[in-house]
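User: For a benchmark we're assembling, each entry needs the component sequences followed by a predicted structure for the full assembly. Here are entry 17's components. Please fill in the structure.
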Amino acid sequence: MLNEALQYAQLHRDSFLTELKDFLALPSVSALPEHKPDIQRTAQWLAEKFTSLGLQNAQVNPTPGHPIVTAEWLEAGPDKPTVLIYGHYDVQPIDPIELWHSDPFKAEVRNDYLYARGASDDKGQAFIYAAVLESFMQTSGKLPVNVKLILEGEEEIGGPSLDPFIESHREQLTADVAVISDTHMLRPDLPCLVYALRGLCYIQVEITGPARDLHSGQYGGAIYNPIQALSEMLASLKDHDGHITVPGFYDKVVPLSEAERKILAQAPFNEQEFMQDAGVNGVWGEKGYTTKEQISARPTLEINGIWGGFTGEGSKTVLPAKAFAKISCRLVANQDHVEIAELLSQHLKQIAPPSVKVEIKRLHGGHGALIKLDSKYMRAAHQVLQQVFDHAPIYEREGGSIPVVATFQKTLGIDSIMLGFGLPDDNLHSPNERFYLPNFYHGIETVIRYFVEIGK
Amino acid sequence: MLNEALQYAQLHRDSFLTELKDFLALPSVSALPEHKPDIQRTAQWLAEKFTSLGLQNAQVNPTPGHPIVTAEWLEAGPDKPTVLIYGHYDVQPIDPIELWHSDPFKAEVRNDYLYARGASDDKGQAFIYAAVLESFMQTSGKLPVNVKLILEGEEEIGGPSLDPFIESHREQLTADVAVISDTHMLRPDLPCLVYALRGLCYIQVEITGPARDLHSGQYGGAIYNPIQALSEMLASLKDHDGHITVPGFYDKVVPLSEAERKILAQAPFNEQEFMQDAGVNGVWGEKGYTTKEQISARPTLEINGIWGGFTGEGSKTVLPAKAFAKISCRLVANQDHVEIAELLSQHLKQIAPPSVKVEIKRLHGGHGALIKLDSKYMRAAHQVLQQVFDHAPIYEREGGSIPVVATFQKTLGIDSIMLGFGLPDDNLHSPNERFYLPNFYHGIETVIRYFVEIGK
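Assistant: Structure for entry 17:
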């Protein structure tokens, strides 16, 4: 069964790639209302794909937001484990579009990379499972394990639909383990097992000064400018040592043990390369922690966007009525995203000058997670990755957020094995997102071997 | 001659209003490139209008930017003064358009106000002169003074064309005095003579952090966020007492004398009304000065716009590559706008964190001006305003900028008499800009009387 599937996968690389390109051509941008019909078409495309693979009960489940696609195949028998496969079919917006070198929704191969929005995050990685299931079904007519699939369309917007759906479909989603490919390896030759994820708390701040935009020559100098107020508030959120100043922010953070700092320090990390990749001439972060720890094991606060007043070409002498910012925090284990959003909101209201009004909207939230290293499913992942990549996987804390991992733990009582095949320079959320094609094919091989291994 | 002109103006109020509406319907937004053809049409409309009034040499003069319209009538004789009439036919952008209650380019009368972009600033006020000239020419076939007209199309963008044009047409523009209607009265019953104007220095700041937008989960916490840097820089530009912290900023400011502070304090100014009009629950400005002084006699710094990162709907977890701000300073007599722009730029570069790049663009600049109170032309203005409004005019410092007043002083050696007929709540540069129609008609009467008075 293993060899036939591997051989099939090997022979069908081109058709897998062609199909992945079709999948990427659907502009499933979850953040923008104008793409709602595209999201629907993408979900439909997936359900039809799953059905054509021979899976059962493929469904586009409506939610108050974007639909969740489910399917299953449970004929491996009760002695075989049931694997819950999670992925997300939505993608980030494409702006600034002028910086893309090719159409973000017309996938293009250049030098072993496939360029498209969603190529790596997460359509390309999620599509690995379709290729794996096809490779088994077309050669053996069956799978080595029972599988359930769940693909959501709101990951990039932290949509509220997934958690209640999992809660209300607890029975239907019961499984022994979840597998997720939505993380990255450190290098093409260096596989990686993520065992910790950060949570996220994302808010929008609206500052209102005067009731309308004013002429800066007639009112300027005597009224608190909302952009000035917002700038002062944002500037005060970190001290000179990069510590976040929101009272209570660090209270529940589980401190990094010396032992864990040693494990993390073993992962290859080159600060020069990190700086080069980001295009900066220096790093700057929380004092007392290494750059590696800052971006993966410590909570952070970043301003994701800011706007207010006149932003067009030329000069308009306006004292604006409003200013806005988007702020998000990455959280670590034991920080509660609802509580942090509350602390941050209270603090912003407290530090605002009295003559402006502050309104806060919570846009997104998710808890962090820690996965136990010593389980049958982690050991099998270690073994298979070593076999495919000829290198033992590195254990990593991931800086990004996959809130569903915490939800699977909490609601279904299962750990998630994160078989990530992205690379650090995949340009996630940026122009020219890409997926390293050898990793796409290695990913297919890894998952084929993994399913056979845990199905033994 | 006086009575005939006054009577004609009285009888032709409706036709003047209809023509003004036509003028306002031309969307002459100078800041936006897409309106360039409209600017051209507006200049053409004016030249044709002047010709039809019986003026001579009406011309649309091309410049590297928007055209300057000139015309003249010099048959009053060498013993009569020559008056240079200045106005601007360009207007501010209309955004946010959703806050307008009627089409900004379809002037509408509601409760004695004419609502349209440019109604008060400055098309409505400039049109007063067309009505005045028509009233004389249609009744007496001549004017009581020699006139030269100059109307520019770059006032709202501080365009660079006007000063070189005046310089190179020095001979053609020679005059004894200039008159300008581009300021406002304090109340409909309280005329006002502006004797000081502030200068302006307007820059745009571009902060570059990483080379591209980054994923905040993978890079956040270890890289100086350009929005954070910009916020810190902007926040530091004023201290807790509202003083501007740019070194050297105040060095050349002529201090306010106690005598002048007394004159200024006599002008009616109600802080409660000011707050109510602006829609704020408190004022905030430079310590040691009254609100009235802050908005008219002291230099100021305002942030006019800010943008960077993700500003769309929803949440995008990006650590942006760039952040921008527009900053402008109002300057008082003896501050040089080029020097202040330089000081501000140097300071911003100095205070920026070392890991970000700062680029500054100068968008706009103009010098302030002081007009002598004791001249034949000021005295005549005082007398005529008192006659029309039945109240002695208040001497005022204007917070806004009319850079041409400094240019006329410097290049032509003449003072400008500012016969302003706007009102403080005309919503200049804001949605629902308006012009109080009784002031339009009073303005026509005032200028008719003024020309007869100085032509005696």
